[in-house]
Design a protein that fits this description.
This protein has about 325 residues and is an alpha/beta fold. It has 16 helices and twelve strands. It has two domains: about 5-60; about 65-335, P-loop containing nucleotide triphosphate hydrolases (Rossmann fold, 3-Layer(aba) Sandwich), CATH 3.40.50. Strands 8-9-5-10-4-11-12 form a seven-stranded mixed sheet, sandwiched between helices. It binds adenosine-5'-triphosphate (ATP) and magnesium ion. Adenosine-5'-triphosphate (ATP) binds near residues 263 and 315.
């Protein structure tokens, strides 16, 4: 795939557009989608090409994921590590952004995995002064400006509040407050800078710390990636119980809880664990799942979602189906306008 430009073929694949080139050109001339530049692509001359920055405007017209009037807050959490929390969060965030929905990702992991994925190195680390960018801790403890902390990505509809390694210090600070779980909902989500986002999405660290408690309390929709692996299956019941206890303790009810089976393989064990999740957790489990595939890492290296990187591969189709199910059937369907 051409990295810098998207041709009508890519547009058709990303947005499942059934129209032919002539109709896409008609939509362009009628300004339903932004103007393309004409480029040579391989042996073909004068091919209509759009940049990544133009995709959200194209997605507003062709996309299947519709923007909601009310702001929606989503948290991606699972106590077990390596189950695709960050990968799924990033793919959801970029797919929504590609559909013209304004998204803010808030990373909560001291491994800074989301930040390194979403931003260019110079945006989060100043090599000359050997200094990290500012993050949540600087906002809470030092009163730094959120407007300056939030960074743009390569998509105009996607910003990130970056993670920093001093999130640990923030955790210690919040732990001492009473109540300790309400800081995000009272001081962060309500901040003027966050009003413009249609979706705010938290990517949690594994474990169950105060930052996770704050993200859970502030969110309306919970997404739990659950890999079809023995260790995750072992942790799963305890994990869901912990979430239920948290809801009871905080007198909070999520509008939706979705368990997404991940790292699914064509093996007996994977199939067994998948059906065990379905029988234990019923309709919390999504009908679609994410397979284990090496292309996942290829797209992440390019800082793209799977669908932007290789529209036709099986993994992209998995993400497309999971995200459409989550958004159209579980999240947007519940938003009260
Ligand atoms: N579909 C896939 N198949 C195989 N590997 C994948 C797939 N998607 C992502 N990966 C890789 O799996 C690893 C774990 O993914 P990820 O970082 O999203 O998990 P996580 O739950 O966020 O982990 P952590 O608990 O450390 O935050 C990463 O190296 C990622 O590149
Ligand atoms: Mg992660």
């Amino acid at each position: 795939m051409d990295e810098l430009y998207y041709t009508p073929k890519h547009i058709r694949a990303i947005y499942d557009v059934k129209h032919d080139n002539k109709t896409i050109a008609y939509h362009e001339s009628n300004k339903h989608i932004p103007p393309s530049a004409k480029q040579s692509v391989g042996a073909l001359k004068n091919v209509s090409c759009w940049t990544a920055q133009q995709l959200p405007d194209i997605g507003r017209f062709y996309g299947k994921l519709k923007r909601q009037l009310k702001q929606t807050i989503i948290v991606v959490y699972m106590g077990k590590g390596g189950v695709l929390k960050t990968t799924l969060s990033y793919n959801i965030a970029r797919t929504l952004a590609l559909n013209g929905i304004d998204v803010l990702i808030i990373g909560l992991d001291t491994q800074v995995s989301m930040t390194t994925l979403a931003l260019k190195p110079e945006q989060y680390f100043d090599l000359k002064n050997f200094k990290e960018c500012e993050g949540l801790d600087d906002f809470v403890r030092k009163g730094a400006s959120l407007e300056k902390i939030i960074k743009p990505t390569d998509l105009p509809t996607l910003d990130i509040l970056p993670e920093t390694s001093n999130l640990n210090t923030l955790e210690t600070t919040l732990k001492l407050q009473s109540p300790r779980e309400t800081f995000f909902i009272n001081k962060l989500i309500t901040h003027d800078c966050l009003k413009k986002y249609n979706v705010i999405l938290f990517d949690c660290a594994p474990g169950f710390d105060v930052l996770t408690e704050n993200a859970l309390f502030a969110s309306e929709h919970l997404i739990v990636p659950m890999s079809t692996e023995i260790g995750t299956a072992q942790a799963s019941v305890q994990n869901i119980k912990k979430i239920q206890e948290f809801q009871a303790r905080m007198n909070k009810k999520f509008q939706s809880i979705s368990i997404v089976p991940t790292l699914v393989t064509n093996t007996k064990l994977s199939r067994q664990l998948f059906s065990m999740y379905e029988s234990k957790f019923g309709n919390l489990v999504t009908s679609n799942s994410i397979r284990r595939a090496i292309t996942a890492q290829e797209s992440l290296i390019k800082k793209k979602s799977s669908i932007e990187y290789d529209q036709l591969c099986d993994l992209s189709q998995d993400f497309k189906k999971v995200i459409e199910e989550l958004w159209n059937e579980r999240i947007a369907a519940k938003v009260v306008q």
